[in-house]
């Protein structure tokens, strides 16, 4: 499979390659270093006039200090959503409700939610330090284990 990548003008490149069917295809690209100092490469399409217009738009955006990485960051952020432990417990219960041991797991999750609520109340007080919270967690986890075995 043959391919070429050649410079047409400043920041404007043409890539030609032969597809598996034997047809030649052409795609135009913009390559430049943006205002943040990062090397960028954008596909501009397969028509020369449209590609030149898109290159002009990218140059204008770069002069206006456009954040090219912002859209990608937002897409990644939308996919990865933070989740609290309480939200995770609710989702976990939905996933295991069809299992035979779901009643046990449900009661354990309820106890764990109560435990978390108590920890938040205790850790909110100024008098109790981190050591007090750790001791409280240890005792509460012991209570949780004994409650789930009963």
Q: What structural category arises from helix and sheet content? A: alpha+beta
User: Helical segment tally?
Assistant: 5
Strand order of the largest sheet: 1-2-3-4
The percentage helix is: 40-55%
* Rg, nearest Å: 29 Å
H and E order:
EEEEHHHHH
Mean pLDDT: 76
Shape, please? Answer: elongated
Q: List how many beta strands DSSP finds.
A: 4
What does this 3D model show about the protein?
The protein is an alpha+beta fold and 150 residues long. The protein folds into two domains: 3-79, no CATH class; 85-149, no CATH class. Helix content is 54%, strand content 21%. The chain contains five helices and four strands, in the order ββββααααα. It has helices at 48-63, 70-79, 85-96, 102-124, 130-149, and strands at residues 3-9, 12-18, 24-33, 39-45. A four-stranded antiparallel sheet has the order 1-2-3-4, with helices on one face. A hairpin with a 2-residue loop joins strand 1 (3-9) and strand 2 (12-18). Helix 3 runs antiparallel to helix 4 and helix 4 (102-124) packs antiparallel against helix 5 (130-149). The N and C termini lie far apart (70 Å).
